[in-house]
Amino acid sequence: MSPGHEEGRPRQESGSVSSTTQHGTAPDDIALLAHPRTAYRPTPLQRAKRFRRTNDQINTLDEAIVTAVSTERPVTLRGVFYRVVSAGAADKSEAGYQAVGRRLLALRRDGGVPYSWITDGSRLIYKPESWGHHDQMLEDAASSYRRALWHDQAVEVIVISEKDAISGVISPITYQWDVELAITRGYSSETFTHSIAQTIIDNTAYGKTTYVYQLGDHDPSGVDAWRDFQAKVLTFAPDADVVFQRLAVTPEQIEQYVLPTRPTKRTDTRSAGFEGESVEVDALPPTVLRSILQTAIEQHIDPRALELTYSVQASERDVLTSLIGGAR
Fold first, then answer.
1. CATH topology of domain 134-306
2. What does the longest C-alpha to C-alpha distance in the chain come to?
3. Directed axis angle between helix 77-86 and helix 55-72, to 10°?
4. What DSSP character marks residue 157?
5. Please, which residues bridge with residue 209 across strands?
6. Strand ranges inside 67-149, DSSP E
7. Bridge-partner residues for 181, per DSSP?
8. Using CA atoms, how far apart are residues 135 and 308, in angstroms rounded to an integer?
9. Which of 204-208, 266-270, 273-277, 300-304 is predicted with the least confidence, judged by mean pLDDT?
10. Chain centroid to CA 132: how far?
11. How far apart are the C-alpha atoms of 117 and 74, rounded to whole Å?
């Protein structure tokens, strides 16, 4: 599948010394119709014929989609699919995935599902910040100013996501806590890992431990990509004070949340030591994923230091506000 689709693991980045495989990528709801490829690649015997649903079946599917989205928003298309499968309203198959995509698109176009409730982290818009007047810039600066939250904390936290597609699902948490969110898209390049390692080295120089938390697929390549990432970082920063932890997906979470699985690709050279079926990080309910991440971050927060940060932040915002209308 092409790297332009909503989710998945693109080809190995330039400069990486590790080999990688390209996972299937999930299209977003519009691309789904233009490029009918899905996360499932059944054999010809498994590929089911498309059938026409009755009005009752469509209504049942629509209700499951609306319930999933309203409960888990913001959520990806693939995340909606997993919630609908868990609710028993769609089959865990190519046909089921396509049906959810079509109905979700229809519901969004009809106004039944707000567009803002679906996130697509793989497509970005770049534009330099600009203002119509310097007072407008000062107003924006005053209202959006944030003092570095971790400046007064004893540690630093970095969150690594294997998939850019779930960035919109977890970014509300990383934004709230002023945490760096890095996207690896599968295996990491030398350039990327060197950058992360340098941050960890700088934190160590300031006497801080860096906690690196990761979210990724439970499959041979996903697990191995996390191992590879850690090895590369430690090559650049062998003496750094750093703790690595995989937050999701874990075997315990698969059992606890009864997550939908998919067959592990035994053709993957990394599958030799991998046990059981595979599970995508998207299979975790977004509310659960955000809760797991929030708990991991909040455990490192010193309440007194946080209160001081917010107090100074409010004072500095007042200073910026006082400049509005006075700069000529």
1. Dna Topoisomerase Vi A Subunit; Chain: A, domain 2 (3.40.1360)
2. 74
3. 120
4. E
5. 155
6. none
7. 159
8. 28
9. 266-270
10. 34
11. 5
Average pLDDT, the chain: 85
pLDDT one-digit tens code per residue, 20-46? 333 444 444 444 444 444 444 444 444
Q: Which residue(s) pair with 212 in the sheet?
A: 158, 244
Q: How many other CB atoms are found less than 10 A from the CB of residue 297?
A: 19
What's the whole-model pTM score? 0.74
Whole-number Å distance between alpha carbons of 265 and 94 = 17
Cα–chain center distance at 2 = 19
Q: And the tokens for 252?
A: 């315990």
Dihedrals φ, ψ of 246, to 5°?
-90, 115
Enter the tokens of residue 94. Answer: 């190519």
Q: Tokens representing 260?
A: 């939908």
Amino acid identity at 95: A
User: Which band of pLDDT confidence, cut at 50, 70 and 90, is reported for residue 18?
Assistant: very low
Domain coordinates of the chain in residue numbers? Answer: 29-117, 134-306
